[in-house]
Design brief:
Shape: globular
Low-confidence stretches: 102-107
Structural class: mainly beta
Order of helices and strands: HEEEEEEEEE
Strand content: 35-45%
Oligomer: single chain
Helix content: under 10%
Strand order of the largest sheet: 1-3-4-6-5
Distance between the termini: 24 Å
Mean pLDDT: 79
Length: 107
């Protein structure tokens, strides 16, 4: 989760990790005429209210990424820039629909 990741300085050194969370409402921004996106995640059921992770992704995100009931799992790295650089998005699960690596499948 976001709070678990933020509490572990030893994994914030640029190594590839996965972080789960929920898109912070109103945080998604995409540069004009670009696939560069910036957004923030927070814990889905986090104990630390307000704990957020800034993230950046280049590519097209699936529509379910924006569903308020979706849990997002990001894979990427976090280092001195203090922004999680996303390489892949994984498993977004919303009421019987599962998205794995940006492809929707009924479950």
């Amino acid at each position: 989760t976001v709070s678990e990741f933020m509490a572990r300085d030893n994994v914030q050194d640029g190594r590839i990790v996965r972080v789960a969370g929920k898109l912070v409402d109103g945080s998604f921004l995409r540069e004009e005429n670009s696939t560069l996106s910036n957004f923030r995640l927070t814990d889905k059921d986090g104990e630390l209210v307000g704990q957020q992770l800034a993230a950046s992704y280049v590519g097209v995100l699936p529509d379910l990424f924006f569903n308020p009931h979706s849990e997002v799992i990001l894979e990427g790295s976090y280092g001195p820039s203090r922004v999680f650089q996303v390489d892949n998005t994984f498993q977004l699960e919303v009421r019987g629909i599962k998205v794995v690596q940006n492809q929707a499948m009924e479950i």
